[in-house]
């Protein structure tokens, strides 16, 4: 944990220093670019008018595969939140300005474009030990299977995501069968304590994420290298998870305005799909602080709780890279999750792969 925080600190300090030097160089070489002048002129005339011109709907739909697994970081790790999979279909962008759907936003009066997404989501949780007699002081066996629907509202400098999950916790989530099949295929050891997993329970959860994009610099002298920061706030309410979180990502690369950061399944910011055909590549780092009130996969079923004491204040830290072109994008993200309950290991690491296909 200490090494990761030191690395993050050095990483952020280095790129911020780089941004300041480049910005000073740009100020000496040119007072302003022609593009900036045109945008400033538009803003003076009418901010809303500029939004209507610059906000153009992206006409492609997407199929997305998101996969979390601790084996993507360390093949010898297989516990706690050990795997997550999300398969998603996302529509093209729509302008709901004259539709009732415009009210699916906390700022409906502000011009925005919207995408609808529909997905199938499965998570798998296991303790450290694989014994048939599970330790009640360890992470319980648990599975989660849900259908989710969401709307993503994009504005010039912000993204708002509202998501609803409906599904099941427990044996009906088929986590035992999924893990057993994958372990047989990959010739990994089997877990023997699934008979102690969380009981069947209907799952209902609502999520709200808001991401703001603030451009730190954009250089014409370094081939368009730019940097931005993405502050975010997220709220979840339901019997699966209830929490509030806030944090930020910082990105360094080319054509950052292609998206609002890489998407993830259960941690950090929700991110976004590309909304431009322009080539983009960037690296990023982020930290999110989270205050957790409810975590079903630690506390157990709503009416049959476990004895583990939830660690309310925790964090997620991440490092990653993303590349996209004409709607296709590929991302890899390393994530460290802080301690989830008293007596747990101080942190848990896993990797994420994200594939987006536009059509």
Provide a descriptive summary of the structure in words.
The chain is α+β, with helices and mostly antiparallel strands and 359 residues long. The chain has a single domain (2-358), classed as Lipocalin. It is 18% helix and 44% strand. The protein has five helices and 15 strands. The protein has a twelve-stranded antiparallel beta barrel with strand order 1-2-3-4-5-6-8-9-10-13-14-15. Strand 13 and strand 14 form a beta hairpin. Helix 2 crosses helix 3. The longest helix is centred in the N-terminal third of the chain and has 28 residues, at 2-29. The model is unreliable at 1-8 and 10-52 (pLDDT under 50).
Task: Give me the secondary-structure topology.
Elements: H1 2-29, H2 34-45, H3 47-54, E1 62-69, E2 80-90, E3 113-126, E4 142-154, E5 158-169, H4 175-186, E6 201-212, E7 214-218, E8 225-238, E9 241-254, E10 280-295, H5 296-299, E11 300-301, E12 304-305, E13 313-325, E14 328-338, E15 347-358
Antiparallel strand pairs: 1-2, 1-15, 2-3, 3-4, 4-5, 5-6, 6-8, 7-8, 8-9, 9-10, 10-13, 11-12, 13-14, 14-15
Helix pairs in contact: 2-3
